[in-house]
Amino acid sequence: MEFKEFGFSEELLDGLNAMRFEKATPVQEQTIPVIKDGKDLIACAQTGTGKTAAYLLPVLDKLVRNGHNKINALILVPTRELAIQIDQQMEGFGYFLDISSTAIYGGNDSGEWNRQKNALTTGADIVIATPGRLIQHLTMGYVKMDTLQHLILDEADRMLDMGFFDDIMQVVKYLPKERQTLMFSATMPPKIRELAKNILVEPDEVNISISKPAEGILQAAYMVYDTQKIPLLNSLLKDKDLPSIIIFSSTKQKVKEIARSLKGNGFNAQDISSDLEQADRENVLREFKNRNIQILVATDIIARGIDIEKIDLVINFDVPRDAEDYVHRVGRTARAQTQGVAITLINDKEILEFHKIERLIETNIYKIPLNPELGEAPVYNPEELLKGRRRGKGGKGKPSGNKRNNYKKKPGKKTNKGE
Protein backbone atom coordinates (compact mmCIF):
# COMPACT_ATOMS: atom_id res chain seq x y z
CA MET A 1 0.00 0.00 0.00
CA GLU A 2 1.38 3.42 -0.96
CA PHE A 3 1.28 6.35 1.46
CA LYS A 4 -0.77 8.47 -0.90
CA GLU A 5 -3.62 5.97 -0.46
CA PHE A 6 -4.06 7.06 3.19
CA GLY A 7 -5.39 10.44 2.08
CA PHE A 8 -2.68 12.44 3.81
CA SER A 9 -2.40 16.19 3.17
CA GLU A 10 -0.28 17.35 0.25
CA GLU A 11 2.22 19.00 2.59
CA LEU A 12 2.80 15.75 4.47
CA LEU A 13 3.10 13.76 1.24
CA ASP A 14 5.72 16.25 0.03
CA GLY A 15 7.80 15.44 3.12
CA LEU A 16 7.39 11.70 2.57
CA ASN A 17 8.41 12.02 -1.06
CA ALA A 18 11.50 14.01 -0.06
CA MET A 19 12.45 11.18 2.34
CA ARG A 20 11.69 8.58 -0.38
CA PHE A 21 8.90 6.97 1.64
CA GLU A 22 6.64 5.23 -0.86
CA LYS A 23 5.13 2.00 0.46
CA ALA A 24 3.81 1.43 3.97
CA THR A 25 5.07 -1.42 6.13
CA PRO A 26 2.49 -3.91 7.50
CA VAL A 27 2.28 -2.18 10.89
CA GLN A 28 1.76 1.19 9.20
CA GLU A 29 -0.84 -0.24 6.85
CA GLN A 30 -2.87 -1.68 9.74
CA THR A 31 -2.52 1.06 12.34
CA ILE A 32 -2.74 4.33 10.39
CA PRO A 33 -6.44 3.90 9.47
CA VAL A 34 -7.27 3.14 13.12
CA ILE A 35 -5.41 6.24 14.33
CA LYS A 36 -7.03 8.41 11.68
CA ASP A 37 -10.45 7.22 12.91
CA GLY A 38 -9.61 8.51 16.40
CA LYS A 39 -9.71 5.13 18.14
CA ASP A 40 -7.45 4.01 20.97
CA LEU A 41 -4.93 1.38 19.89
CA ILE A 42 -2.59 -1.32 21.15
CA ALA A 43 -0.02 -2.18 18.48
CA CYS A 44 2.40 -5.04 19.02
CA ALA A 45 5.21 -5.22 16.46
CA GLN A 46 8.88 -6.10 16.55
CA THR A 47 11.61 -3.49 16.34
CA GLY A 48 12.44 -2.14 12.90
CA THR A 49 8.94 -2.45 11.43
CA GLY A 50 8.21 1.28 11.10
CA LYS A 51 6.25 1.93 14.30
CA THR A 52 7.41 5.53 14.68
CA ALA A 53 6.05 6.60 11.31
CA ALA A 54 2.88 4.60 12.01
CA TYR A 55 1.85 6.99 14.77
CA LEU A 56 3.63 10.19 13.73
CA LEU A 57 2.14 10.45 10.25
CA PRO A 58 -1.57 10.39 11.15
CA VAL A 59 -0.98 12.76 14.09
CA LEU A 60 0.90 15.19 11.83
CA ASP A 61 -1.87 14.94 9.25
CA LYS A 62 -4.48 15.90 11.87
CA LEU A 63 -2.37 18.86 12.99
CA VAL A 64 -2.05 20.13 9.42
CA ARG A 65 -5.80 19.86 8.83
CA ASN A 66 -7.13 21.09 12.18
CA GLY A 67 -4.63 23.80 13.11
CA HIS A 68 -2.38 23.96 16.14
CA ASN A 69 -0.79 26.38 18.59
CA LYS A 70 -0.33 24.46 21.86
CA ILE A 71 0.74 20.99 23.03
CA ASN A 72 -1.31 18.52 20.98
CA ALA A 73 0.53 15.20 21.32
CA LEU A 74 2.70 13.64 24.03
CA ILE A 75 4.97 10.71 23.17
CA LEU A 76 6.39 8.88 26.20
CA VAL A 77 9.58 6.84 25.63
CA PRO A 78 11.97 4.85 27.86
CA THR A 79 15.28 6.56 26.97
CA ARG A 80 16.69 9.90 25.94
CA GLU A 81 18.21 8.26 22.86
CA LEU A 82 14.79 7.26 21.61
CA ALA A 83 13.40 10.73 22.40
CA ILE A 84 16.14 12.33 20.31
CA GLN A 85 15.66 9.84 17.48
CA ILE A 86 11.90 10.49 17.25
CA ASP A 87 12.51 14.24 17.36
CA GLN A 88 14.93 13.84 14.45
CA GLN A 89 12.35 11.85 12.49
CA MET A 90 9.86 14.61 13.20
CA GLU A 91 12.19 17.05 11.47
CA GLY A 92 12.15 14.89 8.36
CA PHE A 93 8.41 14.21 8.23
CA GLY A 94 7.58 17.81 9.08
CA TYR A 95 10.08 19.47 6.75
CA PHE A 96 7.28 21.08 4.73
CA LEU A 97 4.99 21.57 7.75
CA ASP A 98 4.79 24.40 10.25
CA ILE A 99 4.75 22.00 13.20
CA SER A 100 7.12 22.09 16.16
CA SER A 101 8.39 19.31 18.41
CA THR A 102 10.70 19.05 21.39
CA ALA A 103 12.57 16.23 23.15
CA ILE A 104 12.39 16.23 26.97
CA TYR A 105 14.92 14.02 28.79
CA GLY A 106 17.15 13.96 31.84
CA GLY A 107 20.56 15.48 32.40
CA ASN A 108 22.35 18.00 34.59
CA ASP A 109 22.80 20.74 31.99
CA SER A 110 20.96 23.86 33.22
CA GLY A 111 20.89 25.23 29.68
CA GLU A 112 19.11 22.08 28.49
CA TRP A 113 16.58 22.40 31.33
CA ASN A 114 15.82 25.98 30.33
CA ARG A 115 15.43 24.97 26.68
CA GLN A 116 12.95 22.28 27.67
CA LYS A 117 11.03 24.65 29.93
CA ASN A 118 10.80 27.23 27.17
CA ALA A 119 9.55 24.65 24.66
CA LEU A 120 6.91 23.38 27.09
CA THR A 121 5.65 26.81 28.09
CA THR A 122 5.54 28.27 24.57
CA GLY A 123 3.57 25.25 23.39
CA ALA A 124 5.50 22.86 21.14
CA ASP A 125 2.97 20.90 19.11
CA ILE A 126 4.49 17.49 19.85
CA VAL A 127 6.39 16.65 23.06
CA ILE A 128 8.61 13.54 23.12
CA ALA A 129 9.61 12.80 26.71
CA THR A 130 11.02 10.33 29.18
CA PRO A 131 8.54 9.96 32.09
CA GLY A 132 10.86 10.98 34.91
CA ARG A 133 12.04 14.25 33.40
CA LEU A 134 8.55 15.20 32.24
CA ILE A 135 7.22 14.73 35.78
CA GLN A 136 9.88 17.15 37.03
CA HIS A 137 8.52 19.81 34.67
CA LEU A 138 4.87 18.98 35.38
CA THR A 139 5.26 19.34 39.14
CA MET A 140 6.67 22.86 38.66
CA GLY A 141 3.22 23.97 37.52
CA TYR A 142 4.07 25.76 34.28
CA VAL A 143 3.21 22.96 31.84
CA LYS A 144 -0.38 23.07 30.56
CA MET A 145 -1.69 19.88 29.00
CA ASP A 146 -5.36 20.85 28.67
CA THR A 147 -5.11 21.06 24.85
CA LEU A 148 -3.57 17.58 24.48
CA GLN A 149 -5.41 15.25 22.10
CA HIS A 150 -2.97 12.34 21.69
CA LEU A 151 -1.00 10.27 24.22
CA ILE A 152 1.43 7.80 22.65
CA LEU A 153 3.52 5.24 24.54
CA ASP A 154 6.42 3.96 22.43
CA GLU A 155 8.41 0.89 23.55
CA ALA A 156 5.82 0.48 26.31
CA ASP A 157 7.15 -2.90 27.41
CA ARG A 158 10.62 -1.46 27.87
CA MET A 159 9.26 1.41 29.97
CA LEU A 160 7.59 -1.08 32.29
CA ASP A 161 10.76 -3.20 32.42
CA MET A 162 12.58 -0.08 33.59
CA GLY A 163 10.04 0.53 36.37
CA PHE A 164 8.08 3.41 34.83
CA PHE A 165 4.56 2.12 35.56
CA ASP A 166 3.91 4.54 38.44
CA ASP A 167 5.55 7.42 36.54
CA ILE A 168 3.29 6.82 33.53
CA MET A 169 0.21 6.78 35.74
CA GLN A 170 1.37 10.00 37.39
CA VAL A 171 1.81 11.70 34.00
CA VAL A 172 -1.67 10.55 32.94
CA LYS A 173 -3.20 12.46 35.88
CA TYR A 174 -2.12 15.72 34.24
CA LEU A 175 -3.75 14.87 30.90
CA PRO A 176 -7.32 15.41 29.67
CA LYS A 177 -9.53 12.34 30.02
CA GLU A 178 -10.89 12.94 26.54
CA ARG A 179 -7.95 12.02 24.33
CA GLN A 180 -6.72 9.36 21.92
CA THR A 181 -4.24 6.95 23.50
CA LEU A 182 -1.91 4.78 21.42
CA MET A 183 0.35 2.09 22.85
CA PHE A 184 3.18 0.58 20.79
CA SER A 185 5.15 -2.36 22.15
CA ALA A 186 7.41 -5.08 20.82
CA THR A 187 6.00 -7.66 23.23
CA MET A 188 2.71 -8.02 25.10
CA PRO A 189 3.36 -9.38 28.62
CA PRO A 190 0.60 -9.26 31.29
CA LYS A 191 1.80 -5.97 32.76
CA ILE A 192 1.23 -4.28 29.39
CA ARG A 193 -2.36 -5.55 29.47
CA GLU A 194 -2.74 -4.13 32.97
CA LEU A 195 -1.45 -0.73 31.85
CA ALA A 196 -3.75 -0.77 28.83
CA LYS A 197 -6.80 -1.38 31.01
CA ASN A 198 -5.88 1.66 33.09
CA ILE A 199 -5.36 4.22 30.33
CA LEU A 200 -7.02 3.01 27.09
CA VAL A 201 -10.72 2.97 26.19
CA GLU A 202 -12.02 0.08 24.07
CA PRO A 203 -8.80 -0.09 22.04
CA ASP A 204 -8.39 -1.75 18.67
CA GLU A 205 -5.49 -4.20 18.62
CA VAL A 206 -2.88 -4.90 15.93
CA ASN A 207 -0.32 -7.70 16.23
CA ILE A 208 2.58 -8.00 13.80
CA SER A 209 5.20 -10.78 14.16
CA ILE A 210 5.30 -10.81 17.94
CA SER A 211 8.63 -11.75 19.49
CA LYS A 212 10.25 -13.15 16.36
CA PRO A 213 13.31 -11.80 14.54
CA ALA A 214 12.86 -10.46 11.03
CA GLU A 215 13.01 -13.09 8.28
CA GLY A 216 16.12 -11.52 6.76
CA ILE A 217 18.29 -12.32 9.79
CA LEU A 218 20.68 -15.26 9.48
CA GLN A 219 20.99 -16.49 13.08
CA ALA A 220 23.79 -18.66 14.43
CA ALA A 221 25.56 -19.35 17.72
CA TYR A 222 28.81 -20.69 19.19
CA MET A 223 29.23 -22.76 22.33
CA VAL A 224 32.18 -21.36 24.29
CA TYR A 225 33.65 -21.05 27.75
CA ASP A 226 34.00 -17.49 29.06
CA THR A 227 37.77 -17.50 28.51
CA GLN A 228 37.21 -18.35 24.83
CA LYS A 229 34.78 -15.52 24.06
CA ILE A 230 37.18 -12.67 23.39
CA PRO A 231 39.64 -14.81 21.38
CA LEU A 232 36.69 -16.09 19.31
CA LEU A 233 35.42 -12.55 18.82
CA ASN A 234 38.77 -11.35 17.51
CA SER A 235 38.94 -14.38 15.22
CA LEU A 236 35.42 -13.82 13.87
CA LEU A 237 36.05 -10.17 13.05
CA LYS A 238 39.48 -10.69 11.49
CA ASP A 239 39.48 -9.73 7.81
CA LYS A 240 35.73 -9.03 7.91
CA ASP A 241 35.02 -6.21 5.48
CA LEU A 242 31.74 -5.20 7.14
CA PRO A 243 31.20 -1.46 7.61
CA SER A 244 28.74 -1.66 10.52
CA ILE A 245 28.87 -4.12 13.45
CA ILE A 246 27.24 -3.99 16.91
CA ILE A 247 28.39 -6.16 19.81
CA PHE A 248 26.04 -6.36 22.79
CA SER A 249 27.06 -7.27 26.31
CA SER A 250 25.12 -7.17 29.57
CA THR A 251 27.54 -5.18 31.72
CA LYS A 252 29.54 -1.98 31.34
CA GLN A 253 32.67 -3.76 32.57
CA LYS A 254 32.49 -6.34 29.79
CA VAL A 255 31.78 -3.66 27.20
CA LYS A 256 34.97 -1.83 28.14
CA GLU A 257 36.99 -5.06 28.19
CA ILE A 258 35.72 -6.08 24.74
CA ALA A 259 36.39 -2.67 23.21
CA ARG A 260 39.88 -2.56 24.73
CA SER A 261 40.73 -5.97 23.26
CA LEU A 262 39.41 -5.06 19.81
CA LYS A 263 41.29 -1.77 19.73
CA GLY A 264 44.43 -3.58 20.83
CA ASN A 265 44.06 -5.88 17.82
CA GLY A 266 43.74 -2.97 15.42
CA PHE A 267 39.95 -2.86 15.02
CA ASN A 268 38.09 0.43 14.62
CA ALA A 269 35.91 -0.07 17.69
CA GLN A 270 34.26 2.15 20.29
CA ASP A 271 32.30 1.35 23.43
CA ILE A 272 29.10 3.07 24.58
CA SER A 273 27.34 2.77 27.93
CA SER A 274 25.61 4.87 30.58
CA ASP A 275 29.05 5.80 31.96
CA LEU A 276 29.52 8.22 29.07
CA GLU A 277 28.20 11.76 29.25
CA GLN A 278 25.14 12.35 27.07
CA ALA A 279 27.05 14.52 24.60
CA ASP A 280 29.74 11.82 24.26
CA ARG A 281 27.13 9.12 23.70
CA GLU A 282 25.43 11.16 21.02
CA ASN A 283 28.80 11.76 19.34
CA VAL A 284 29.65 8.04 19.35
CA LEU A 285 26.26 7.15 17.83
CA ARG A 286 26.66 9.89 15.23
CA GLU A 287 30.11 8.62 14.24
CA PHE A 288 28.80 5.05 14.07
CA LYS A 289 25.83 6.06 11.91
CA ASN A 290 28.20 7.94 9.61
CA ARG A 291 30.37 4.79 9.29
CA ASN A 292 33.36 6.49 10.92
CA ILE A 293 33.27 3.77 13.59
CA GLN A 294 33.08 0.19 12.32
CA ILE A 295 32.35 -1.69 15.55
CA LEU A 296 30.11 -0.39 18.33
CA VAL A 297 30.31 -2.28 21.63
CA ALA A 298 27.25 -1.54 23.71
CA THR A 299 25.17 -2.38 26.71
CA ASP A 300 21.42 -2.79 26.29
CA ILE A 301 21.10 0.99 26.45
CA ILE A 302 20.70 0.98 22.66
CA ALA A 303 19.22 -2.48 22.18
CA ARG A 304 15.85 -0.84 21.67
CA GLY A 305 14.69 2.36 20.20
CA ILE A 306 17.77 3.50 18.28
CA ASP A 307 17.17 3.65 14.55
CA ILE A 308 20.52 2.75 12.96
CA GLU A 309 20.11 1.49 9.43
CA LYS A 310 22.09 -1.14 7.54
CA ILE A 311 23.75 -2.97 10.43
CA ASP A 312 25.62 -5.85 8.83
CA LEU A 313 26.34 -7.96 11.89
CA VAL A 314 25.03 -8.15 15.46
CA ILE A 315 26.98 -10.21 18.01
CA ASN A 316 25.56 -11.11 21.42
CA PHE A 317 28.71 -11.46 23.50
CA ASP A 318 26.53 -13.07 26.13
CA VAL A 319 22.98 -14.39 26.09
CA PRO A 320 20.38 -11.70 26.92
CA ARG A 321 18.87 -12.12 30.37
CA ASP A 322 15.33 -11.92 29.02
CA ALA A 323 14.38 -13.99 26.01
CA GLU A 324 12.44 -11.08 24.49
CA ASP A 325 15.56 -8.87 24.64
CA TYR A 326 17.18 -11.21 22.13
CA VAL A 327 14.63 -10.09 19.54
CA HIS A 328 15.46 -6.45 20.21
CA ARG A 329 19.22 -6.99 20.04
CA VAL A 330 19.22 -8.93 16.79
CA GLY A 331 16.56 -6.55 15.45
CA ARG A 332 19.31 -3.98 14.93
CA THR A 333 20.13 -5.86 11.71
CA ALA A 334 17.94 -6.81 8.73
CA ARG A 335 15.79 -3.72 9.19
CA ALA A 336 13.38 -2.55 6.52
CA GLN A 337 13.50 -5.88 4.63
CA THR A 338 17.31 -5.96 4.27
CA GLN A 339 19.58 -8.93 5.10
CA GLY A 340 21.72 -9.29 8.21
CA VAL A 341 23.58 -11.71 10.47
CA ALA A 342 23.21 -12.26 14.22
CA ILE A 343 25.65 -14.43 16.21
CA THR A 344 25.37 -15.34 19.89
CA LEU A 345 28.17 -16.64 22.12
CA ILE A 346 26.76 -19.12 24.65
CA ASN A 347 28.76 -20.25 27.67
CA ASP A 348 28.07 -23.40 29.69
CA LYS A 349 25.94 -21.46 32.21
CA GLU A 350 23.75 -19.81 29.57
CA ILE A 351 22.44 -22.91 27.81
CA LEU A 352 18.99 -22.94 29.39
CA GLU A 353 18.60 -19.19 28.87
CA PHE A 354 19.32 -19.61 25.17
CA HIS A 355 16.93 -22.56 25.05
CA LYS A 356 14.18 -20.19 26.27
CA ILE A 357 15.00 -17.89 23.36
CA GLU A 358 14.71 -20.73 20.85
CA ARG A 359 11.33 -21.70 22.28
CA LEU A 360 10.14 -18.09 22.19
CA ILE A 361 11.02 -17.56 18.53
CA GLU A 362 10.15 -21.16 17.60
CA THR A 363 13.52 -21.69 15.93
CA ASN A 364 16.44 -24.03 16.54
CA ILE A 365 19.42 -21.78 15.92
CA TYR A 366 22.41 -23.44 14.24
CA LYS A 367 25.44 -23.96 16.52
CA ILE A 368 28.65 -23.41 14.56
CA PRO A 369 31.47 -25.78 15.61
CA LEU A 370 34.25 -23.98 17.47
CA ASN A 371 37.65 -23.86 15.82
CA PRO A 372 39.77 -26.60 17.50
CA GLU A 373 42.59 -24.05 17.91
CA LEU A 374 40.46 -22.32 20.56
CA GLY A 375 40.14 -25.52 22.59
CA GLU A 376 37.31 -27.82 23.55
CA ALA A 377 33.86 -26.24 23.73
CA PRO A 378 30.86 -26.97 25.98
CA VAL A 379 28.07 -29.11 24.55
CA TYR A 380 24.66 -27.60 23.91
CA ASN A 381 22.43 -30.00 25.83
CA PRO A 382 19.38 -28.18 27.25
CA GLU A 383 17.30 -31.36 27.32
CA GLU A 384 19.84 -33.12 29.56
CA LEU A 385 20.02 -30.09 31.85
CA LEU A 386 16.24 -29.99 32.12
CA LYS A 387 16.16 -33.73 32.88
CA GLY A 388 18.76 -33.14 35.56
CA ARG A 389 16.60 -30.48 37.14
CA ARG A 390 13.62 -32.80 37.12
CA ARG A 391 15.67 -35.65 38.63
CA GLY A 392 16.63 -33.28 41.43
CA LYS A 393 12.99 -33.09 42.49
CA GLY A 394 11.29 -35.83 44.50
CA GLY A 395 7.79 -36.15 43.11
CA LYS A 396 5.63 -33.03 43.12
CA GLY A 397 8.27 -30.38 43.33
CA LYS A 398 9.68 -31.57 46.68
CA PRO A 399 13.38 -32.09 47.23
CA SER A 400 14.65 -35.62 46.64
CA GLY A 401 15.34 -37.87 49.61
CA ASN A 402 19.05 -37.12 49.78
CA LYS A 403 18.52 -33.41 49.74
CA ARG A 404 15.85 -33.62 52.43
CA ASN A 405 18.04 -35.79 54.66
CA ASN A 406 21.02 -33.51 54.20
CA TYR A 407 19.01 -30.40 55.06
CA LYS A 408 20.12 -28.73 58.26
CA LYS A 409 18.35 -25.85 59.94
CA LYS A 410 20.51 -22.89 60.77
CA PRO A 411 20.64 -22.15 64.50
CA GLY A 412 17.93 -19.72 65.50
CA LYS A 413 16.27 -19.92 62.07
CA LYS A 414 12.47 -20.25 62.24
CA THR A 415 10.52 -22.16 59.67
CA ASN A 416 7.10 -21.27 58.31
CA LYS A 417 5.62 -23.69 60.86
CA GLY A 418 7.02 -21.72 63.76
CA GLU A 419 9.64 -24.32 64.68
Description:
Keywords: ATP-binding, Helicase, Hydrolase, Nucleotide-binding. 40% of the residues lie in helices and 16% in strands. By secondary structure, it is of the alpha/beta class. It folds into two domains: 3-208, P-loop containing nucleotide triphosphate hydrolases (Rossmann fold); 217-380, Rossmann fold (3-Layer(aba) Sandwich), CATH 3.40.50. Helix 12 links the parallel strand 10 (269-272) and strand 11. It is globular. Residues 393-419 have low confidence and may be disordered.
Task: Based on the model shown, name its key terms.
single chain, 419 residues, alpha/beta, Rossmann fold, 2 domains, seven-stranded parallel sheet, 16 helices, 16 strands, globular, disordered C terminus
Look up the CATH topology of the largest domain: Rossmann fold
By oligomeric state, this entry counts as single chain
CATH top level of the largest domain is: Alpha Beta
Total number of strands: 16
How many structural units, i.e. domains? 2
Q: Strand sequence of the main sheet, in spatial order?
A: 3-4-2-5-6-1-7
Please state roughly what percent of the residues sit in beta strands, choosing from under 5%, 5-15%, 15-25%, 25-35%, 35-45% or over 45%.
15-25%
Continuous helix count:
16
Low-confidence stretches: 393-419
- Give the helix proportion (percent range): 25-40%
Largest sheet: 7 strands, parallel
Mean pLDDT, to the nearest integer, reads: 84
Any idea what the CATH architecture of the largest domain is? 3-Layer(aba) Sandwich
Outline type? globular
CATH superfamily of the largest domain: P-loop containing nucleotide triphosphate hydrolases
> Nearest-angstrom radius of gyration?
24 Å
Family: Belongs to the DEAD box helicase family.
Protein name: DEAD/DEAH box helicase
Keywords: ATP-binding, Helicase, Hydrolase, Nucleotide-binding
GO molecular function: helicase activity
